[in-house]
Specification:
single chain, alpha/beta, about 35% helix, Rossmann fold, about 280 residues, 11 helices, about 20% strand, two-stranded antiparallel ribbon
Length: about 280
């Protein structure tokens, strides 16, 4: 199914959750000099003007990134949140919030000479937009119009000492939950030290629970889970929260993100809250 386009949801609370974690993760990995292969399995467009018709239609950024942007001076003292907002500011044309960068930018903007980034995007229209993004043009970034989960497995093992993967499908198909779990198991078998960040939606149907249990039953160690709820599950239809599952998180990453989201959650809604826990193998 190729109907999903992230432009309708750009900058929403799930993007804040996912990209704040991704920014923190990339920064932590950069502390070591050894080369990293980054892989984004569902890249999207890479850049989203907030004035675009698709984004304006739902305007989800107004209850996502915008409240944080409006309070960026107060949040500047928060180490992770302040740094994330400062990075976001480099993508604006003025003092107003006009653009939201997607995961290709959050991954690609910090690439070093020795690093590599592979972007998968199956949707032909989204892939065309992705090709227009101003990312490294010296061979460090590859764009592939292909299935990201299957493409990731074919890449393994990578040539660099380290591997960092973002997996965030739309989950429009029920089977994607099982496919994500199966892909993670294959990654662990081929690259045991891989760092993998999986995003999943919190929906009333609760299909993510089966995926999480499938991953737990696979015996995969060192998994930390982060869930951000912005609405009560029983109160409304649609996505009420955002989930992340992180394989092999860097040292103190869990504490840093939990502290940051404690500052962020109250800005995202009256009932917003964050919960983090070790899903498997607490160190």
């Amino acid at each position: 199914m190729l109907a999903y386009q992230h432009a309708y949801h750009a900058g929403n609370f799930a993007d804040v959750h996912k990209h704040l974690a991704l920014h923190a993760l990339v920064q932590a990995l950069m502390h070591k000099s050894s080369a990293i292969s980054f892989v984004d399995t569902h890249a999207g467009r890479g850049r989203y003007p907030l004035t675009a018709a698709e984004t304006q239609r739902l305007g989800e950024y107004r209850t996502g990134v915008e409240p944080l942007w409006q309070r960026r001076r107060a949040l500047a003292a928060s180490p992770l949140v302040g740094d994330w907002l400062a990075a976001l500011a480099t993508q604006q044309t003025g003092p107003e919030l006009s653009c939201y960068p997607g995961s290709p930018w959050w991954l690609g903007s910090q690439l070093r000479t020795q690093d590599r980034l592979t972007l998968f995007e199956l949707h032909p229209g989204e892939h065309r937009h992705l090709a227009d993004q101003a990312l490294a043009a010296d061979g460090r970034v590859q764009r592939r119009q292909a299935d990201g989960l299957g493409g990731l497995v074919k890449l393994l093992p990578v040539s660099t000492p380290r591997l960092c993967v973002l997996i965030d499908p739309s989950y429009e198909r029920k089977a994607e939950y099982e496919e994500v779990a199966a892909t993670l198991a294959q990654v662990v078998r081929k690259v045991r030290h891989a760092v993998v960040l999986i995003w999943y939606p919190l929906l009333p149907a609760g299909r993510h629970q089966a995926m999480l249990e499938q991953i737990r039953e696979a015996g995969i160690p060192k998994l930390w889970r982060s869930e951000l709820q912005v609405r009560r599950p029983e109160a409304e239809r649609g996505m009420y929260g955002s989930g992340l599952l992180l394989l092999n998180p860097p040292w103190q990453f869990d504490d840093a993100l939990t502290t940051a989201l404690a500052r962020v959650a109250p800005l995202l809604g009256e009932h917003a809250s964050h919960h983090g826990e070790w899903w498997t193998g607490e160190p």
